[in-house]
């Protein structure tokens, strides 16, 4: 028995070690810095208690304005991209599930290939495509007579949000699609055959067979997509630099600016903790909403 316990500990030990080194210790140290006056140059100048949080949430300081602007922009990005990344990926998965076996693998690879690209490459391609003057998309639409003058995709709102959302959806939709494809493969095909005999159409099958069979994956994809969208940084940083006029500057860019440009690691750490709390609250709210729906069924 003792030998079995020691073997089990050896298997768990690497996970515990990495969890402590790369998550728990940095988190606790970050929480400590968030209640300190801390700068990259002078280091720790003493505890300030909840002073950093008061600056961010309740004062009229630049930190409050920066945090609220970053939070608002992040929420806008989440609302723009999440429906396409969840419902769009489900639609692609349903389409693939109905393709012949001999070509299903080809299309699966095509849709998933974009996910393997780096954010730098994706940003470079979409800037080339969607820049206002001389961009490929504008040139193509002008030559086809669809528009008469260039659309400022990368220069003015709301077009900049469209560009960022399009780049993000194209880049990451393949991953969610693969999760839905695997979930659809687990549904018994005999259920489709029996329902078809009873006269059920696609929408009836979607409601009573498909969605109940993939609902756990659906809510998992929804939750992870919201969390990933809340952590957006690369696309606005590389495509718009947070512009025009900080209208696409997400919360992580605000945190980075606070730490690196304003040399205030204490307030930046407090912003990070608050961002984590917002994400956790969203996850908890979503969990209880879906739990109640499951109990009603």
What does this structure look like?
The protein is 75% helix and 3% strand. With 297 residues, it is mainly alpha-helical. It has a two-stranded antiparallel sheet. β1 and β2 (43-47) form a beta hairpin. The longest helix is centred in the first third of the chain and has 36 residues, at 62-97. The mean pLDDT is 87.
The level of helicity is: over 70%
Shape: globular
**Taking Cα atoms only, what radius of gyration do you get, to the nearest Å?**
24 Å
| Secondary-structure element order, N to C | HEEHHHHHHHHHHH
Briefly summarize what is shown.
With 297 residues, this protein is mainly alpha-helical. The protein is built from twelve helices and two strands.
Secondary-structure blueprint:
Layout: H1 2-34, E1 36-39, E2 43-47, H2 51-57, H3 62-97, H4 101-113, H5 119-130, H6 136-143, H7 159-185, H8 189-197, H9 202-230, H10 234-239, H11 251-261, H12 265-296
Antiparallel strand pairs: 1-2
Helix pairs in contact: 1-12, 2-12, 3-7, 3-9, 3-11, 4-7, 7-9, 9-12, 11-12
List keywords for this structure.
297 residues; mainly alpha; two-stranded antiparallel sheet; 12 helices; 75% helix
